[in-house]
Design brief:
Layout lengths: L3 E11 L5 E11 L3 E5 L6 H9 L6 E6 L2 E2 L10 E4 L11 H11 L4 H14 L15 H13 L5 E5 L7 H18 L2 E6 L2 H7 L2 E6 L2 E6 L1 H6 L4 H6 L4 E11 L2 E6 L4 E5 L9 E6 L4 E3 L7 E11 L4 E7 L3 E7 L12 E6 L4 E4 L2
Parallel strand pairs: 3-8, 3-9, 6-7, 7-8
Antiparallel strand pairs: 1-2, 1-4, 4-5, 9-10, 11-12, 11-14, 12-13, 14-20, 15-19, 16-17, 16-19, 17-18
Helix pairs in contact: 2-3, 2-4, 3-4
Length: 357
Amino acid sequence: MDGTLLEYRGISKSHDGSTMAVRDVDLRVRRGEFLTLLGPSGSGKSTLLMMTAGFDEPTRGEIFYDGASMRNVSPGKRNMGVIFQSYALFPHMTVAQNIAFPLRVRGNAKEEIRRRIETQLALVHLSGYGDRKPGQLSGGQQQRVALARALVFSPNLVLMDEPLSALDKKLREHMQVEIKRIQQETGVTVLFVTHDQGEALAMSDRIAVFNAGRLEQVGTPEEVYRNPATEFVSTFIGSNGTTQGTVRGRRGDRYVVQIHGGEQIEVRDNSHIETGSRVKVMVRPEEIMLGNEETSNRVTAVVDGISFQGDHYKVQLRVGNSDILYGKVSPEDRGRVAFGKNVPIAISREVRMFRHD
């Protein structure tokens, strides 16, 4: 066994025979990892999850789970826990009865069911809530019940389809920590679907980024954030500004790009792009230093907007006639920038560029 629990081989799915919801996906999920399928609405991530659960079938390709093909295997025979966005708790049942449901379907003995319910309630910090109905619980508590029910029969894999999207920001962030804690304590493999990049960065061991049914990149949160493989990944993960330019040559281990306004910057050598090519340079706020006139890679920008973000100010910067970048200044340095004024900015030499045809 090579450590792979779940494998997709050439998976494609069309609901109408012509439009592809998922296109030629090859992906391996490692045993014990937390892997997130991340992408915008309609990117194919939930469709892939539903095929994994057995609620839909691939048009082409094959899914292997624990070394066995899932072709023609019903959802109930796959030994996977599933958590939906709506939680799908039975409103007429108590918390304990909801958690016990998968065990009763499997014919477990009453004493075994009781023991497992107590274990799961303790795991999700709901001991003493067994006799309550779902309607008597908060959204976060309902989420924990759904998680306990998905784990109670000891599956190797738990599938989660945007389970936190209905919660408010503070509770959502708390549940991110709780779900990750439970996953680490139990060692269960989690396949998690979300469109929230912050959620994916905070919770995942690896992230699989989807766009228009295609798998664009798979990597750790640090890899997809710092080394995006495509322009889409760069713009979808994190906050980005862009400036367009033309490659003018090389300087050491960097490309020299002439951006709008005529100024030149050095860019990381990562794209094997020819001199004379048109490119988009992707710049994150933390890759800009405002008001610094002494460092290299310096250009002049116009302050187009300033917004308070709590622990910092977000500054919108116009380079040339129309390219927009974003920087950050601390409250203490707020006086260094003023709306409509020119400001020198230093751009990191580690920024990435992509061909712009």
